[in-house]
Amino acid sequence: MGEKPLKILACGDVEGSINAVFNRVRTVQKKSGQFDLLLCVGNFFGSSPEAQAEWQEYKSGAKKAPIHTYILGAASQETTRFFPSADGCELADNITYLGRRGVFSGASGLQIAYVSGREGRQDPTPAHCFSPKDLSQLVEPLISNNQFRGVDILLTSQWPRGVWQYANSPEVNTKFCGTTSISHLAFKLKPRYHFAAVEGVHYERRPYRNHVVLQENTQHVSRFIALATVNNPEKRKYLYAFNIIPMKSMEASELVKQPQDVTENPYRKMVGENTLSDPTEPASQFFFDLGKKQRGGGRGQGGRGRKRPSDGDGQNQGQPWDPDRQTQPSGPCWFCLASPQVEKHLVISIGTHCYLALAKGSLTPRHVLVLPIGHYQSVVELSSEVVKELDRYKMAVRTFYKSKGQRCVLFERNYHSQHLQIQVVPVPEDKCTTEDIKEAFMLQAQEQNMELMEIPQHTDLKQIAPPGTPYFYVELDSGEKLFYRIQKNFPLQFGREVLASEAVLNIPERADWRECKQTPEEEESLSKQLRNDFQPYDFALED
After folding, report:
1. 426 near 406, Cβ under 8 Å?
2. The domain that contains 217 carries what CATH number?
3. 449 with 393: CB under 8 angstroms?
4. Using the 8-state DSSP alphabet, how is residue 294 labeled?
5. 297, 370, 504, 534: which has the highest count of C-beta atoms within 10 A?
6. Domain co-membership, 277 together with 379
7. pLDDT tens digits for 176-210?
8. Please, what is the average pLDDT of the chain?
9. Count of CB atoms within 10 A of residue 241's CB?
10. Where are the alpha helices (DSSP H) in 33-63?
11. Strand partners, 295
12. Are residues 93 and 182 in the same domain?
């Protein structure tokens, strides 16, 4: 029989509404049975006379908490007087202050890491704040253990900055929300659950992975949940119930299972580059002094950073990779929009950073290319703003194809190519299923001794293919993604050959684009028709 899971409740800022939260807990327990713990993040105490009177009833023993309750320390100067010690202590029957920072391990083996208060920006650090030293002293003993895989739960009052990257957006002003020191903390401790508060909203992020796909062994996922304030007028969620089996009691195969909606780690780029997302924040880069186990620093810290591959002239050697900087083509480029070589009669739509064009020698009349206006070799070299518009074009073309009863297949070949081209090919829905298309790619790859791998849908290509890596990539209309890291002798027409095959479009004679050339007049006529058809979906006309 398997390990019995623990039943845990997590709560946002109580702010002195102690009766309200415990009454809510009683209601939950009456309906769902007894819970083992209540974990409170944010401000537990309130500063009003009513809140102080309410607390006095529990402190005196007149009232008792209905559950073992563990709270964080003060997150505001006004409530520091409620905490007699920085080391943690029992404040009332069944109500325990965890302490300034540390790790709480229960008899079950459940491991809870915690940091009280807000990030300190003064020296000495105020009582309601934590310092870089606090975080170092929490992290270093844990990660120095070779057996460390992560903690079960992380409790912080403040949010980690950038947690919303690759995921659903919270109802907060992200410009001012959170702190990078908590982001670094979460990245290092790899909590299965991370709870925070103080922003007054409920936000449940999609789970994110703690490993790099295809480069590291699969690890458990992390879930970030922010909780609102107790008794908030908007009725936002402030109490979260969940079951958990301690990590140490789980089979590895169960622990590392990846849910369908898992995303990339939102902090990896921030930690890898050793830069702050917000230049107004203090440089509390405490993790970069943790000795040999720490990875080398990035830009701005004396580290080497990730380098962009040389264009062959040696001028970029030693320069850090900057996604906002375009390379210059080594010769004439047929796809840079400003180039005189571009066949502008093929252009369908022009945005701010990208454009859409009819594919020369197209497989079908609606076969198009999505390309950056500037010179970039692959998707992994694009800046975030270019990626954002590229994704808008992909979505617009998908919607356009859908209206015509066609599936959308995208592929990119970063091999023997100078300028990024996303090939977008429509496949009539009555021709074959998405599964048929996927199988066609997999089978033809096997026949040519290529290991075409399926990667999770929310994978960021930059995590598995750093700039300069040759690769082939397919995205199906279901969101499924296929990836192959090119070794050598990759067939340049592979994507077209698969889609032209009998299993998909059944037009094998059109597998080579050079056999499908049209006169400039025919191309112009086809482009004009496509331009008119695409117009209702062209966001560039609205911007």
Report:
1. yes
2. 3.60.21.10
3. no
4. S
5. 370
6. no
7. 899 999 999 999 999 999 999 999 999 999 999 99
8. 86
9. 13
10. 49-59
11. none
12. yes
Residue 97 belongs to what H/E stretch? Answer: strand 95-97
Asked if 289 and 419 sit in the same domain, the reply is no
Bridge-based pairing of strands 239-244 and 481-485 is unpaired
DSSP string, 378-426: SGGG--HHHHHHHHHHHHHHHHHHHHTTEEEEEEEEESS-SS--EEEEE
CA–CA separation, 521 and 363 (whole Å): 18
Domain match, 24 and 122 both: yes
Could you give the percent of the chain with pLDDT greater than 90? Answer: 69
Answer yes or no: do 279 and 423 share one domain.
no
Q: Alpha carbon 220 to chain centroid distance?
A: 15
Token pair 């026949």 is found at: 447
In this structure, are residues 365 and 357 in contact, taking their beta carbons and an 8 Å threshold? no
Residue 171 belongs to domain spanning: 6-293
156: β partners: 115
Give the domain CATH number at 436. 3.30.428.10
Count up the domains in the chain and report the number: 2
Residue 333 domain-assigned? no
Do residues 236 and 374 share a domain?
no
Contact 418, 330 (CB under 8 A): yes
| Cα Rg of the chain, angstroms | 28
206 touches 224 (CB < 8 A): no
Alpha helices in 215-372 (DSSP H): 252-255, 268-273
Q: For residues 176 and 107, state if they share a domain.
A: yes
429-445 burial code (b ≥16 CB/10 A, e <16) = eeebebeebbebbbebb
pTM: 0.62
Query: Which of 480, 495, 475, 336 is CA-nearest to residue 415?
Result: 495
Bridge pairing between strands 422-428 and 368-372? antiparallel
Token readout for 189 is 């401790």
Q: What is the mean pLDDT of residues 37-62?
A: 95
